[in-house]
């Protein structure tokens, strides 16, 4: 069987046969002329009775066969459909010919047969391979520069390793385990492959019944455990003989991020999923060190369902969801603390900020602590609203941006009319945002900003502008968000597995950032994130005594 693969050059619609309709094409010459999208194919098409069928694979929208006796025009064949006909020569020879119409971009429009999944949710090896190729293709088409951190040969060797690791059939979790490290190698905290939580964490799944916080030093601290055998604050030493440090190290390849400290914060958020993927067992022998003690104890837990955990481990329930932003004012100690957890809802922030700063002025509170330690970002406009109240000078959070728009980007944005582009934009000082005047409500007190390794995306750029413009004192840890970073993400659903990937399509330079010195916002007072509020309170007391 021979295959002639041609690509689409133009779209011209001719009146023609319906897909699947067969006919006889007569010819007194061999080869016959073949015209693909208006362009003659050199050498034409040779009548080959020995091939059964003789297949023409093409992505073209218009295919024309021409002989001295017949003309066959094919213009309405849909992608992944085929058309059969018989070529008959004057000598009586006949050849069965099949025209297969392939997709112009098979990753965006795969063969429907490839999308047929089993009732069990398992993927065939062919399906998994297709999804890996589709994932890498999508990232390469959307992301501004997938090789800014990782070399080409390293990335594509990892792709080949991921493909080689696949068995004849794989679960969504096994597909994630093979593919997520490839995406993480790009080194962009906004570009990542989501863990398939819904398909894995079903009601009957038995899991590890200990919940932990993962600290920057890679230690595991218990937050709760089944039947409260291990208390909150106790240190987990090992699980089934694997040390805490080794557990965290094994999880690192699966999380995206620019720096190890931020990737560890991602592990903290994903720990139950990654632990189940890597260390699932029927039971778990846990070595732990009670808080304040030197002795190491051991306890073996059975794997249990989440329903059992809820009944026997009530401290795991989060309770009432905290507001995106709230504050409390302490007139006696002349301090207010704002809990700022998310950069969403600009209109709400406008109302909130006006109300909070009005209250601080009326109560004559001269110290404000803004806590963004658990803030993973959102929309930078929300930060601009707050920064206008506290900045001593005109500011901008990002003064340069690289924007890439490809046809796939437009499709994922749902705005097909956007023209493809690759542009670099700069903002000059005349475009900076002006702070409010005192009359308009500008806050003149001392401001302290609490940061952590989890402070990311728009929260990271907020922290950078805060420090760069001298708005106050930064207390805590280096932010997870870098001063030069990728952002503005698009959601991409893999064609077969339906796993979700998020891909950046812009690169940002924060205010006066140096691309040769990439890092997060560095604290003025460096302390572990858990101690940042206490450290800021001490600074408030010191400043009060100094007045």
Report on the architecture of this protein.
This protein has 547 residues and is α+β, with helices and mostly antiparallel strands. The chain has helices spanning 125-142, 152-164, 172-184, 197-200, 244-251, 260-279, 306-312, 346-362, 380-390, 407-413, 458-468, 532-546, and strands at residues 24-27, 33-36, 39-40, 54-58, 63-66, 71-74, 82-89, 94-101, 123-124, 169-170, 192-193, 210-214, 220-225, 235-239, 242-243, 283-289, 297-302, 325-330, 335-340, 367-371, 398-405, 421-426, 446-451, 473-476, 484-493, 500-510, 525-526. It has four domains: 24-101, no CATH class; 112-200, no CATH class; 210-316, Pdz3 Domain; 325-546, 2-enoyl-CoA Hydratase, Chain A, domain 1. Helices cover 26% and strands 26% of the residues. Strands 12, 13, 14, 15, 16 and 17 form a six-stranded antiparallel beta sheet that branches. It has a six-stranded mixed beta sheet with strand order 18-19-20-23-24-27, sandwiched between helices. Strands 11, 21, 22, 25 and 26 form a five-stranded antiparallel beta sheet that branches. A hairpin with a 4-residue loop joins strand 7 (82-89) and strand 8. Helix 2 (152-164) runs antiparallel to helix 3.
